[in-house]
Amino acid sequence: MFYTVFSTNDSPYMQWQSDLLEHSWKRVGQEGVLIRLVATDKPDQLPAQKHAHCFATKLYDVHPDTGDAYVIYNKPASLLEWVFSDKPEGTVLLLDPDCVFRGQVTRRVTPGRPVGQDWIDFRVGPAGADSPFGLGDRFSFLNEHCARTDLSIAPVMVPTLIHTSDLRKICARWLQLCGIVRNHLRNAEGQKVWESDMFAYLAACAEYGLSHEPASLGICTNWDSAKAPDCPVIHYCQPIAAADGTSIFSKFTYEPWKCLDTMLEPQTDYGRDLVEIINDCVNTNGPPPITTSASRPRWRAGVMEGRVLDEMLLENTANGGSIWLSGSGKAVWELCDGKLRIEEIGTVLSQRFAAGREAIVADVVLTVEALRGAGFVDIN
Asked: How far apart are CA 60 and CA 39, in angstroms?
């Protein structure tokens, strides 16, 4: 099996990126399945996706020992939970949420032979006591935490192709080293580095003897096109500018579901491709439906229910999707008969559970939107 996997939380900022990635995945006809790992404290209110399978994982954006707030802890933590809970087998294409497909990724990997995008602007030297894994003397702290640091690495980044058996080996160590790097490494301004997870990944792989083959898989939007030729993925981590320097797109300021100006000519070919993909996504899908307190949710036909004590597993026979509902989610589902508005469902449940109606209605909206997005209810 071929898995395209990316990790997010359940914020609106992550939602439009997930929708765009999903659209581009479908647009190019990428083989395999698309997995969105969602770090959340509300697993029964998963975000809505048309094609991606959403997998709820525990929220891990604050380190439990150091208190360090770093949302990217969720990446290795979510992957760790997924590979041991879902037990996938095959090739995994690891992406960040701010990635889109402009072509298919056709390569597959075998255990022990991962492939990664060459980290263009980061080089390593010989490994030694003063330069653990060849990362340089500012990583000397790793000597205190790693059994062997004389192993060489290839500097790679996402997109990465790695076998599930290798992910099972490294994810726990990756997460641990991520906290260590965050605790010790500082940039020129004395701040903790945002690439901590990337350095930790390289070190974890080196400890397990996993040497990556550098390849041209995904281009960052601050690279020259020639540095990653013919790559199928665009990693829009930096803004896209026009030939005259005018900003066309930045993920930090983009207004979701708004078309970009096509009168401005991007500086690069991947810039043109990204503008086309974004506009195609907007024009094809339009803004997602908004579930309100006045909406009337109605069960879709063909949904199978599996009840376990006070919880429930729903399976959609039409698209193969599934969703696990806690006791509160199950209570909402049982009232989605198409007759009651969401505000009326909230009234029923607030009386049943002796809880505040306003808070209950807000939770019902989120639960129904998750059910709608997964294909289990329609909204009237």
From this structure: 7
Give the DSSP H/E element, type plus range, for residue 274. helix 269-285
- Domain residue extents for the chain: 2-215, 297-379
pTM score, whole prediction: 0.80
CB atoms within 10 A of CB 299: 17
Alpha carbon 333 to its chain's center: 27
Let me know the angle formed at the C-alpha of 251 by 40 and 98, rounded to the nearest 5 degrees.
Answer: 55
State the pairing for strand pair 33-39/53-57.
parallel
Task: Report pLDDT digits (tens) over 214-257.
Answer: 999 999 999 999 989 899 999 999 999 998 889 999 999 999 88
- Buried b / exposed e along 116-132 (16+ C-beta atoms within 10 A): bbbbbeeebeebeeebb
Phi-psi region of 55 (alpha: psi -120 to 50; beta: other; left: phi over 0): beta
Read off the DSSP letter of residue 186. Answer: B
Q: Could you tell me which of 110, 100, 138 has the C-alpha nearest to residue 122?
A: 138
Question: End-to-end CA distance of the chain, in Å?
Answer: 38
Peptide linkage before 114 cis (omega within 30 of 0): no
HSE of 197, CA atoms in CB hemisphere, 13 A: 19
- What is 297-379's CATH number, 1.10.10.1150, 2.40.50.140, 3.40.50.2000, 1.50.10.10? 1.10.10.1150
Ramachandran class of 357: left when φ > 0, alpha when ψ lies in -120 to 50, beta otherwise: alpha
- Structure tokens of 121? 């602007």
- Token pair of 319, please? 């698209």
Query: What is the per-residue pLDDT for 289?
Result: 66
CA distance 123 to 223: 15
Residues 176-202, mean pLDDT to the nearest whole number = 94
User: CB–CB of 152/128 below 8 Å?
Assistant: no
Contact 29, 45 (CB under 8 A): no
At residue 116, the 3 state secondary structure works out as: strand
Q: Compute the distance between CA of residue 35 and CA of residue 6 in angstroms, rounded to an integer.
A: 7
CATH of 2-215, one of 3.90.550.10, 3.30.200.20, 3.40.50.10860, 3.60.10.10: 3.90.550.10
Residue 22 buriedness (CB in 10 A; 0-12 / 13-18 / 19+): buried
